[in-house]
Amino acid sequence: MRWRLMLCAGVLAMSTCAGAQTTVSVAPDAASKEDVKKLFDVMASREQMAQMMHQVFEQMRSMNREQLKKSQPSITDAELARRDRESEDLIKNFPLDEMLNDMIPIYQRHFTKSEIEGMTAFYSSPTGRKFLREMPAVTAETMRVSYPRIQAEIDAAMKRADEKSDSPKK
Would you state the pLDDT for residue 25? Predict the structure, then answer.
């Protein structure tokens, strides 16, 4: 159960970073879909999202294995391998293209055509390219530093839920 909760928390965190499908009204001076897609291409958004997901899942898998071994000392290597395959299947089949398409109207709502063009120019520049190259490492380091705090909050929430379910009903 804890493993699935952690996996869901990771997916939720990534999808929150990547954007969510929503209906938005597009401003008259908004960028076209093609403008936003060009920005996504310059930013290598699909590759960035895939790399970020892979890093997050690798960290989660390692930490989840440790947690599982502590909470279920009798867990077999075969069961751990099965859970690893489930994680790999989730990563492999994650709908990145659909998520990017869902993000287009959000960018259109929040940024004008000239702002999208400015971001495209920035991310095409040497500084912008470096930013894009470094972000996966920055994100991975941030997740490593943040994970203990996230884990503590999840553990506390699970403890409260366990205590609530164990307490007598009135």
Answer: 59
Per-residue three-class SS string for 65-99: HHHHHHHCCCCCHHHHHHHHHHHHHHHHCCCHHHH
Whole-angstrom distance, CA of residue 57 vs CA of residue 68: 15
And the tokens for 11?
A: 């997916």
Computed over every residue of the chain, the mean pLDDT equals: 81
SS (H, E, C) 107-122: HHHHCEHHHHHHHHHH
Residue 41: which of 82, 100, 86, 89 has the closest Cα? 100
pLDDT for 112: 95
What does pTM read for this prediction?
0.58
CA separation for the pair 49, 116 (Å, rounded) = 19
Specify which residues 30 forms β-bridges with. 112
Q: Give the pLDDT score at 57.
A: 78
Q: What is the rounded radius of gyration, in angstroms, for the C-alpha atoms of the chain?
A: 20
